[in-house]
TrEMBL record:
The keyword tRNA-binding does not apply. InterPro entries: PhoU (IPR028366), PhoU-like_sf (IPR038078), PhoU_dom (IPR026022). This is Phosphate-specific transport system accessory protein PhoU. Its main location: cytoplasm. It comes from Candidatus Methylopumilus turicensis.
Length: 235
């Protein structure tokens, strides 16, 4: 009975940690949404809210990291349980970095507001990128919650789309700057934001890869999407 009780405690601790990770995920997704809206509407209050949320995300990362350290010290987990904890530690790092990228975008919005320019950069071109990375993050977190690898390849394929959209935006912005040097400052700001969104996509893909590692025991980092798909379909 003591052993069964210990296992139940261990499972409860793991579930509590996973719940905090999903809480972090919800916060960073809201950061992404608010960061984009703060840009498009040049809303300094919304930008400030993104930065405040980032502090909550950072605090959760510290809490989960400490929880995982305590679980390892007390329970000495092995095999799949250890993989679970490793997945959690890696995932919270990527979530914290997604929050950082959203905060960078919010700072651009704040800078634009404070400069009180007559002409402000247009960010409509990157809306599609934001929609994609938000979907990637949701799918990756859903895979994390369910320990389901079936849609992780979808995240990797969407990351390729985001990369292509970033390259297309960069080519377009370079053309603008070459044709009219007056657009250089604004174009660089749009490019900075587009790069932050592209990095968010990379972090969402990382989370999906950790799920594959957890479920299949295979490290699919630095592999092609086709190789990742083969691993997810393997029995």
């Amino acid at each position: 009975m003591q052993t069964e009780h210990t296992y139940k405690q261990f499972d409860a601790e793991l579930e509590a940690v996973r719940a905090k990770v999903l809480q972090m995920g919800g916060l960073v997704e809201q950061q992404i949404v608010n960061a984009l809206e703060s840009l498009i509407s040049v809303n300094p209050k919304l930008a400030a809210e993104v930065m405040e949320t980032d502090q909550r995300v950072n605090a959760l990362e510290v809490q989960v990291d400490e929880d995982c350290s305590h679980i390892i010290a007390r329970r000495q987990p092995a095999a799949s349980d250890l993989r679970m904890i490793m997945m959690v530690v890696k995932t919270i790092t990527d979530l914290e970095r997604i929050g950082d990228e959203a905060t960078k975008i919010a700072r651009v919005a704040q800078k634009i507001y404070e400069s009180d320019r007559m002409y402000k950069p247009r960010f409509n071109e990157i809306k599609t990128m934001v929609t994609l990375v938000r979907e990637m993050l949701r799918t990756a977190l859903d895979a994390f919650a369910r320990l389901d690898v079936t849609r992780t390849v979808e995240v990797a394929r969407q990351d390729e789309q985001v990369d292509e959209q970033f390259r297309a935006a960069m080519r377009q912005l370079i053309t603008f700057m070459l044709e009219d040097p007056r657009t250089i400052s604004m174009s660089l700001e749009v490019l900075f934001v587009a790069k932050a969104i592209e990095r968010i996509g990379d972090h969402a893909k990382n989370i999906a890869e950790y799920v594959v590692y957890m479920v299949k025991g295979k490290d699919v980092r630095h592999t092609s999407v086709d190789e990742m798909e083969r691993e997810t379909l393997a029995p």
